[in-house]
Each structure stands twice: as C-alpha cells, then as structure tokens.
Amino acid sequence: MVVKFVRDENAEATEALSEDASTLNELPTPPRQLLDRHGARVLDPATAVVAAGQPVPRTTVYRPGTFLLPNRYLRDQESLAAINRVLGRIGIYAEPADRGGDSSGYGRARQLDDLPVRALLHVREDSDPVVVDCWKALQLLRSAASGEKPEIDPEIVRRISVEHLLFTSPVFGGVPWETSGLGGTPWETSGFGAGSSYGRTHGANRIPVTLAADPPYRSKKPAHRRPVVAVLDTGIGPHRWFGLADRSGPPPAGSGLTVAPGIQAAILQAEQDSGTTLPTQLLTDYWDAPTTGQPLIGDVDTDTGHGLFIAGIIRQACPEADTLAIRVVHSDGVAYEGDVLLALHLLADRVRNAQANNRPQDMVDVVSISMGYYVEDPADVAFTGQFGTAIADLLSLGVLVVAAAGNDATTRRFYPAAFADQPLGGGCGPQVISVGALNPDVGTSKALFSNEGPWVTCWATGAGVVSTYPTDVRGSAAADHELPGRNSFDPDDYSAGFAVWDGTSFAAPLAAAEIAKALFQSGDLATVDRDTVVKRAWTALGSL
C-alpha cells in the first residue's frame, strides 16, 4: 500500500480543480427510507427559506427537529429566553436535550463550555399547527440578529447551526454517489455495480476473502509508549487478530485494539436525551451492530464491519500502534453530527488532562475520521456546524487529525476533510490532513471515485484494500450456483475474517498509520506535555 503526502510546492497542480460552480448544489439524494430512519431532511436550495442578506444555501442533509449551539448558551437562561422570544413568532420553542441523567463521561461533557449540544425544537401549546424545521428557525434567528438594533446577540446566533448527517465514504449501497449515475439505486443498474472494477457483489463493493497470513508482528513490550490512533467509526467485532472470539467482553490488553466506555456512555446518554422527540437509532455500546439493516430481508448492512476493517488497516501498516475504537457511525453509514462532535470534544478533554497531569497512558496521538458531509455554505467556516472549533482544539494540543476526502468524484468540499486548507487556530500542531484514494496499481493512479481539489493534501491506497472483517457476520445472500458437492462462494459469509473493499474511508487510516509509525520511530513517546507533543507532531509529519 502507498501513501503520498502532497508538498506545498506541488499544490498548484490541483489548483485548477477548485470547485466547479455547476456542481455546487449536486448531492446524490439519500433513500427516503434512510432519511426517515434517522429523522433527517434534504435541504433543497430551490425551496429553502433564506433571511435577507444571507446566501442561498447549497444542498445538505440535516435533522429538522434540532440544532446545535455551544453549551454555555443553553445553560444561560437569558440566552435561551432570547432565542425563544424570536422562535415564538413561528410557534415553536427550543429546550436543551438534557434530562439531567448522568453517566461516565457525560457529566464531564456537560461542563465543557464550547461543547456543541442539541437544542430540541417543539411546537408551543398556544400555537397553530406548524412544521418544525430548524433551518427555518435558524433563518429567523439570523434575521433577528441583523440590523442596527438586533433583537438577539449576533454572537449567539453565529454559533448556532443545523445538525448535519455525516456519511461514511462508501455510502448507499457501498458505491460512490456521483459516479454511479443513479444515486443509490440498486446495484444491478448502477454504473459501479457488478461488472465494474469497483463493484463486486450484491449491495456493497466488499466481498469476503481469505488471507493465509499471520497477524503482523507486534512486540509484546515496546521500548516506549505505543502511538494511539483514535478511530471514530462503526465500532468493533470479533476477530482473531485482536483476540476477540465473540462479543462477550472488551478487547484484551495488548491486543492492539482498545475502547472508551466513558465516551461511549456519553454518546448513548446524549442520544437517549434527544430521542425523546426525534427518530434516533441508539449506539448502545462499541459493538458494530446490527449487521443487517432490514431484518426481514437479511442483507448485510452497507457499513457493517467498516470500523474493524479500518482497525485492520492500522494493524497492517503500523502493528506497534494501538487503535482506540469509538463508535459514532451506524451500520448503515450514518453519523449524527452531535455524536461526532461530542466524541471529538471528549477526546480533546482526555488529551488535555493527560498532558496536564502527565498521564501518557491516556494520550491520543492521531484521530482518523472516515466520514463527512457537504456544507450548505462553505464560504463561511461558521456555517460548517461546530467542527472548526472541535478540531482546532485537538490540533492545538498536537493531535494529528486525518480525514477521508469522500467518494463522489467531485471537487465540492467534503467536511471535515476540507478544513485541510483552512487554518484552524494558531500556534498549534499540523492542520487537518485530507486523504484521497489511489488505485493499487504500480503507477498509483488516483481512484475514479475519489474526490479531489486543492484541499486534498495526501493520497493513499484506497481501492482493492484487504483487511479484517467481523467473523460472525452472515447475510441472507446465498451462493448463486449450487451443484452436488460444490457451489460458488457465499457473498456475505465473512467467517474467514477478511474482506476486500474500496473507498477513501480506507485511504485515511492508512495515512494515519503511517503517521503513527513516524511517531513511534521518533523516539520516546512517554513525554506528553503540550509543547513536546506539538513539536513531535510536526517532526513526524515532516519526516513523511
């Protein structure tokens, strides 16, 4: 597998690939079933309301019953009252999505001022029937915050955003949106279905394979602390490489795979709080489940095994690293922005405490993100939700953030990867590293499906990748030829424990693993004060 970091002097080669105005509103429409499952809506520029002076939005996917704003404003009664005075004009009000429950991690999360939290929107009892839509509510707030005598503090409104849905790179049906030609239609008619070099089997572009190889060698007791790569994805499943025979307990110590029960509990609590009024699929723990999204049919869900596949890539490219698996993505490839931001803020809080209290065992060195969304207004970072603040916090601590560039063969900015050319914070570690996908050929050509643009700063193998897959996953598909004593292979029996898959989702963790390897080779990782960590991050990246 190959990783190429783009040097600054070569950036001009992709400068001509800046966003094409004709594609700015293009967004493959998610299936209605998927939108309904997660209580989501597509923002249509043709019908969206717009406040005076505000730009016409671009297409995005969001949850209409909630918006996000920093914790400090929801805790402040005057700020919340100001918001509700304005929203009352359209018959709705906002309240914190917090029932006061507590769990490990969540109590600490609620103390973070900059933590983006959900505000739930409800219809007022004295109102006529109305359609609850956070986009309309946000436009009303922006209008009220404008002019010489604003009704509400513009700074509060500037920090409010819709809650986007994020999608993993191999999305609906496992094939790229834009280049499929039919945007998530059944594989038989999709341009990237069976018969294409990227389309291999029913429902997804992954297939089970066998691998006659031992796990990559990993020393039992390294000379110094192992680098830690946090993977925000679908969680984990059983596999021999990580000492997991089943789902009865967490990964054993020394396996190279760890979990974060406190952060996981905080995500569950946040989802339970918002689930009182929103359709919410709960992420109950760190196990990747359910394996099938439609139990009556039994097809393996589009992103089942995605997180363990990524963990296997890191194990292959940097065996000495530990993968910290945090489940924020559902098995259908959907993540809620509020969940992802909560995980990022809690990771930053964990690193900050580790640096302040000299606890190297709690350090996180790299964060790998294989998901993203297309923002409604990329001209203003404030409108990209709250990701800028969350990632800037990690970068300021010297944590390297690696993000997949997306699989839609477009130059439209895919966040958070597109932050790579938008400096976040000052005096901190390296900026976001966005990763496009290469084919596995000798010439390392760019994959047909990969997004591209001046904001893509790294390229890594992301097609034809072989890695670990949960051994207990079985689907309803059967061998298509059965004869006495022989048959074709079952396309969704993964008991062999490996699969081949395509996507920038898998290029990103390969780049993250190469960075972890550079960190490991740089020397003693036991010193974790902020200045040392920042310098170490720059040195490791520079060596690549």
Range of helix content: 10-25%
Number of helices: 13
Unreliable spans are 8-16, 170-195
CATH topology of the largest domain: Rossmann fold
Head-to-tail CA distance between termini: 15 Å
Q: What is the correct CATH architecture of the largest domain?
A: 3-Layer(aba) Sandwich
Provide a brief overview of the structure.
By secondary structure, this protein is α/β, with parallel strands linked by helices. The protein is built from 13 helices and 20 strands.
What does this structure look like?
By secondary structure, this protein is an alpha/beta fold. The chain folds into two domains: 3-16 and 167-475 and 491-543, Rossmann fold (3-Layer(aba) Sandwich); 43-165, no CATH class. It is 25% helix and 17% strand. It has helices spanning 32-37, 71-75, 77-87, 106-109, 134-144, 154-158, 177-180, 261-274, 306-317, 337-356, 387-396, 504-521, 530-543; strands at 3-5, 41-43, 60-70, 92-96, 116-123, 161-168, 207-209, 228-233, 257-259, 322-327, 334-336, 366-369, 371-372, 400-404, 433-438, 458-461, 465-468, 482-483, 486-487, 498-501. The strands form four sheets. It has an eight-stranded mixed sheet with strand order 1-16-15-14-12-8-10-9, with helices on both faces. Strands 2, 3, 4, 5, 6, 11 and 13 form a seven-stranded antiparallel sheet that branches. The longest helix is centred in the middle third of the chain and has 20 residues, at 337-356.
